[in-house]
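Sequence design from tokenized structure. All designs in this work follow the same two-part layout: the structure record, then the generated sequence. An example of the structure record is given first.
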């Protein structure tokens, strides 16, 4: 049988998923950050601040920010003196990030178009690897995790910020209603593309539960793994070490 992977609630070939995810992010690139503000009522900024505090970037460290697109995480880490390489499979997202970096004076960032499943960087190259709201859009998550482990130095740190499913009673039902019914309408109103945001919500529902994803991180070779739920699991910070 031909391999099938999830694209939202659909089952498609890996090649089709990669192509369709690319089209989604090309479509929403210029409005991506505006939509993040609208969908999360600005809370994504607090989540990203907390995420970077967990990473603890330090001057002189070399960090790969995968699926870094518009630069939100990279800018925060660069302020702490880290040498950050921003990578994304989607050039449209990178172009938005490069434009924002020029406007903000982040001239030292390195921008590199990369497929998370097949990185071109050498083994044991980075001190830390970050990926925020990107891992669920990767076609083969296990391959991306294996690559993250490969490019990290011994003692390197892996950090992932990703949506999950809240377990808070009452809030879970309200959040499901909001995300499925209202987010696509907000996407249509602001970005002119409700269907792309419908996929992004569906992709959250298809993403592995927090314990399952933690197990995948351990399977990739990471140790001392940890999951930190936020808002009962609406989002979670996953981490691990290469030792």
């Amino acid at each position: 049988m031909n391999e099938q992977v999830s694209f939202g609630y659909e089952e498609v070939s890996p090649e089709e998923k990669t192509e369709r995810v690319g089209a989604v992010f090309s479509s929403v690139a210029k409005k991506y950050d505006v939509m993040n503000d609208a969908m999360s009522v600005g809370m994504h900024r607090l989540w990203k601040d907390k995420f970077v505090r967990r990473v603890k970037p330090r001057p002189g460290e070399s960090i790969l920010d995968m699926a870094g697109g518009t630069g939100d995480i990279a800018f925060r880490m660069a302020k702490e003196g880290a040498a950050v390489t921003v990578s994304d499979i989607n050039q449209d997202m990178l172009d938005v990030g490069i434009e924002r970096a020029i406007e903000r004076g982040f001239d030292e960032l390195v921008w590199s178009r990369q497929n998370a499943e097949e990185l071109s960087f050498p083994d044991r190259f980075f001190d830390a690897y970050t990926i925020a709201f990107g891992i669920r859009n990767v076609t083969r998550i296990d391959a991306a995790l294996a690559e993250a482990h490969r490019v990290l130095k011994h003692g390197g740190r892996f950090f992932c910020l990703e949506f999950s499913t809240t377990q808070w009673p009452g809030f879970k039902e309200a959040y499901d209603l909001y995300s499925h019914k209202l987010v696509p309408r907000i996407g249509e109103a602001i970005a002119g593309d409700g269907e792309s945001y419908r996929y992004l919500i569906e992709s959250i529902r298809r993403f592995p539960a927090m314990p399952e994803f933690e197990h995948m991180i351990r399977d990739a070779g990471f140790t001392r793994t940890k999951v930190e739920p936020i808002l009962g699991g609406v989002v979670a910070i996953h981490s691990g070490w290469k030792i």
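The radius of gyration is 17 Å. We note this feature because it recurs in several other targets discussed in the main text.
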